[in-house]
Amino acid sequence: MDGRLNQNGIPHAFDLNAEFVINIADYDGRLRIGEGPFYFEMVWEALGPDRVRAYNSGENVVGVAVIRNPPNPSDLTTDLLRGLNYTSRLRNVTAGEWAVFMNADGNFLIARVLQLQDVNEDQRILNIECRVHSVGASGHEIRPSSAPGVDAITSATEGVLAPSGGGDLDNQADVAYDLYGQVAVAAAVAEVGLIEAFQAFDSSPKTLEHGGMGHNMPPPDILVDEQSRSDALQALRSLQDLQDTRDGTAFAKVVEAGQLLLKAAQALWSWIEPRFGKFADSFADTLGKTAASKTWLLSVMMVATGQLTKVVELVGQLLPTWPI
User: How far apart are the first and last CA of the chain?
Assistant: First the structure.
């Protein structure tokens, strides 16, 4: 399961919206959540019953703030989160308040402190509810969602990490829930990458899109057709919004999204793959702006293709677990 300890021993969960229980007497109070542009490492310290300290010293975290009087979650906006005070390396947080971590990618992890049980020196059990608020490459808000936090299944009785209320699922259900979270995270990452690819393509010289890239193979529809772009982004967003609804209708939607994204990835790869060798050779001889633009554009496309392929791979793993 993805919630197992990584090689460094620090608990790492891939569910972006979940409730967790962690013993902050262990691992220097560290908990890692998400991956890619949605990766955060939280660092906590116990101060007393229902009172903790949050630090900005975790990996990929550049700031920490606190919201003393939390608004309705639906009222959270990017402007509100960006306007918080991130000037200190630490913030003290009391139960009911929110710690806000900003990462190097400009995304936000909001952790509502529910409870701290300061049992003894070796057991300081922190219960937090987490959600990610993200801003995509185009500036629009993305709020990745996934199944309940049952991917992190190490027992809380072992003092490591567990989702609140978890532990009563059989192995197959654990795998399925875990894949829900992985699909949601991968789809959110791929959405950002695809938006960046669209922007790179739109801003590149037209000679790179057609004549410079070859008249005999024009760019695929996903790069030049607005409806195809919209369909791909909507497919990714539908996978981020997967709920624990395992019926035939939901299954069909996941299949449809997976098929569409597979075709998109194949079309992108078919377009860029023949050009890598050509431009790698010409780049050494033509160290000008046009050659650099070609290489940069293809690199962005390559990353987006890989991210789409990862989503399709995870969807393929998820579908056989569907009890229909």
Answer: 23
- DSSP code of residue 75: G
DSSP 8-class letter at 244: S
Q: Is the dihedral of CA 35, 234, 261, 277 positive or negative?
A: negative
Name residues whose C-beta falls within 8 Å of residue 184's C-beta, 6 or more positions apart in sequence. Answer: 15, 16, 144, 145, 146, 147, 239, 240, 242
pLDDT digits (tens, 9 = 90+) for 105-121: 888 999 999 999 876 77
5-49 pLDDT tens trace: 344 578 888 877 788 888 999 999 999 998 888 899 999 999 988
CATH 1.10.8 fits domain 171-321: no
Residue 221 has pLDDT above 50, yes or no: yes
153 close to 5: Cβ distance less than 8 angstroms: no
Check: CB of residue 296 under 8 Å from CB of residue 275.
Answer: no
Domain boundaries, the chain: 12-163, 171-321
By CB atoms closer than 10 A (0-12, 13-18, 19+), residue 230 is exposed
| Tokens found for residue 105 | 């990618």
- d(Cα 10, Cα 217) in Å, to the nearest integer? 48
C-alpha–C-alpha distance, residues 193 and 300, integer Å = 8
Q: What is the pTM of this model?
A: 0.50
Tell me the pairing of strands 30-33 and 12-13.
parallel
User: 162-187, pLDDT tens digit by residue?
Assistant: 333 333 333 334 444 467 777 877 88
The one-character DSSP state at 89 is S
